[in-house]
Amino acid sequence: MKSMNKAMAFFLRTRRLDIRRLDRKPQESLGMVHKILAAAVKDAIDKIKKLERGFYGLGRNAYDDIARYRPCVLAILQASHISHLNSLVAINDIIQRSQDPNINFEVDPFDLEKLTEYLRKINDVFPAKISELVLDIKRVLKYLDKYCLSYYDIEGHVYLDTGHYYEKQRRFLRNEIKRHLDRVEIMYEKFRKSVLIHSEMSSYARDLARRTDCERAPFLLLFPEAAEGIRTACSACMSWIDADAHYAMFVSNDINHLAQKKEEVSRLLRTCQEKFHQLHTRWTDVSALSHKHRLTIPKTHTHQP
Question: pTM of the prediction?
């Protein structure tokens, strides 16, 4: 009975934080929007972790996986007399040549099996599973654009430190999310339709290529690049959600600070007005007295000789 209650509670909590709720109706509070978006991002992170476990193996990482396949790939490159293995076309060509009895193609069957195995791993996650994750984050991005705004125009509004900083921050994060997601899709399309070049990949993939010495076989970087790109996009989403959650508080602090400054300026203005009034009264009194004295002093006539 307890297990059923726990399962029901989990179901209701999951349903309450389902991002599809934002498709059906606007939320009553921005705090709930933040919770729903954060839950969607965490779900995407869990999915990419699951894909990594399936791709690399339990307890393994990208470095271990590349180290496992790299010797076989380099052996095939040497036997094939080609410098790089950087496209789906090139991999399929090697597999077809190895199966053609009319071609003398001396490739170790074990190395060929490893290459075929790795291609199956790629085909298992690309494009369907990776594309699904990319779409999940793009959906989050859509609602970040809709709900998590600064309502501040950098070009048009009077400068306000908090609004200016947050607007620049959200623009930067939006570009980062889009850049990483676009790269995931572009790299796979290059692998499928043209060629992969490791120098065009992310700094993470370039560093991994250098550490594993697989620049000549950049297809080994395809999944690690995609996983890291999605994870980085998720991290940027969480930074945006967190920044938006604190934005209202910072704006409130700014308003209180401006109200305090307004009161200080108002006090200074009242003091200046009082001094002006006192000085004006004094000037009026002096002016009146001076006029009175001019009337009582007899005029001096100058006599002609």
Answer: 0.78
